[in-house]
Design goal:
The chain is α/β, with parallel strands linked by helices and 406 residues long. 33% of the residues lie in helices and 24% in strands.
Length: 406
């Protein structure tokens, strides 16, 4: 299993429901905590996609529901901003005790404000990333402004936020005015990545400007182009996760990847049929990468297809073999391009012999050389291109043994 279900008690004794997403090898190098947006849950597709993308960078990612939201206990009125921060601190303590010390906080929308405040209180947090975060905590009050006056009169009312009913009270409303987020951001003194869509209609881009202006270096900003506030397009959330994973590597100590326990094999592939369509995570000793299928056949197109990887292996092996040969010969080969196309083609010979139309696998390899090479040298390189190990494996009588392991 690459996902562990958790129940984490917060300061008030409510059980916060969470999932710990793990890398393919189930051995994270680092731990991160994800704070979801206001009135959202940890099951939002963007939260899942970002978390899963971070696991490919060696993170174990905890995504959880704040008090009174999703599957967590408590009432929404108990989920005021300060309580969100306390929930983050409770989750941080739990993960530190049972798994490992979190070093990265990621927050979406109001969750972005919450992780900035939590990071200012947690010495173990080394870096913070926000997505569509407001520059002031009180920014979200416009979502229930229609009920604020009624709260003052009645003490507690039910308001409609995003098409859903929620109960709020006076303490809930007043808590949003207590936090000076810009002052906290100014004093954070930790690496901060601010990601924001320029046309975000929920939290305007000026919020990103204000946060960035107040933050101290090292700070970074990434524009999310045409993304919407909730990152409803899967490619946007996948991009966010990959950018965060790459950005934060600068601030974390590099650690070698550990292999899955698969009896010493060279590579392992893992597909979670419950969570994913065709997205398959693969890992070697030192590298993790993703394969997928295109949108046209029901995939998410998060990575190359299996046949793309087959072609890639042939192209890479060909280019490397040509480099070694040209260097040994001291030829002026500066660059090589290897173009590969895989297809199924009808075999005329088979059809003539059997009377049955059959298709065979066909790989077309086209080469482009950059350098001062004569025709004889180019022809020799073409011959050598057919001698690379992967090329020879593909045309040999390869045997593949399959067995079930416990």
């Amino acid at each position: 299993m690459n996902r562990i279900k958790l129940s984490i008690p917060n300061a008030k004794g409510y059980q916060l429901q969470a999932h710990l997403e793990l890398p393919a090898n189930q051995k994270p190098h680092y731990f991160a905590i994800f704070a979801h947006c206001f009135t959202c849950t940890s099951n939002l597709s963007a939260v899942r996609n970002i978390s899963r993308a971070l696991t490919a960078h060696g993170f174990g990612v905890v995504r959880f529901d704040f008090t009174g939201l999703g599957r967590s206990e408590g009432e929404f009125a108990d989920s005021y901003f300060s309580a969100n921060v306390e929930d983050l601190i409770a989750v941080n303590a739990y993960i530190t005790k049972h798994y490992g010390t979190p070093e990265l906080l990621v927050g979406h929308s109001l969750g972005g404000a919450a992780v900035i405040v939590a990071a200012s209180r947690l010495d173990n947090i080394k870096a913070v990333a926000t997505v569509g975060a407001p520059a002031t905590v009180s920014h979200v009050t416009h979502l229930f402004s229609h009920g604020i006056e009624e709260v003052k009169q009645k003490g507690a009312v039910e308001v409609n936020i995003g098409g859903r009913p929620f109960k709020i009270d006076k303490d809930f409303v007043e808590d949003f005015e207590k936090v000076d987020l810009q002052a906290i951001t100014k004093n954070l003194r930790k690496p901060l990545l601010i990601m924001h869509a320029p046309f975000d209609r929920i939290v305007g881009i000026d919020n990103a400007h204000d946060l960035y202006h107040n933050a101290k270096h090292p700070k970074s900003f990434v524009s999310l182009d045409n993304a919407d506030h909730l990152l409803s397009n899967a490619k946007d959330s996948q991009y966010v996760g990959n950018v965060i994973g790459t950005w934060v590597a600068r601030y974390f100590e590099a650690k070698p990847s550990a292999m899955l326990d698969v009896k010493g094999e060279q590579l392992v592939g893992h597909l979670n049929l419950v969570e994913d369509k065709f997205t398959t995570t693969m890992q070697t000793k030192n590298h993790t990468f993703i394969a997928d299928e295109p949108d046209s056949i029901g995939g998410d197109d998060f990575g190359p297809s299996p046949y793309d990887f087959l072609s890639a292996g042939l192209a890479a092996c060909t280019a490397m073999t040509l480099k070694m040969y040209a260097q040994r010969k001291k030829w002026d080969l500066k660059e090589v391009f290897v173009y590969i196309t895989y297809s199924k083609k009808h075999s005329t010979d088979l059809q003539e012999a059997t009377g049955v139309s059959q298709k065979i696998d066909h790989l077309q390899k086209r080469l482009k050389f950059v350098g001062d090479l004569d025709d004889t040298q180019q022809q020799r390189l073409k011959e050598i291109a057919s001698k690379c190990p992967v090329h020879r494996t593909l045309i040999s009588d390869t045997v593949i043994e399959t067995e079930i392991v416990a």
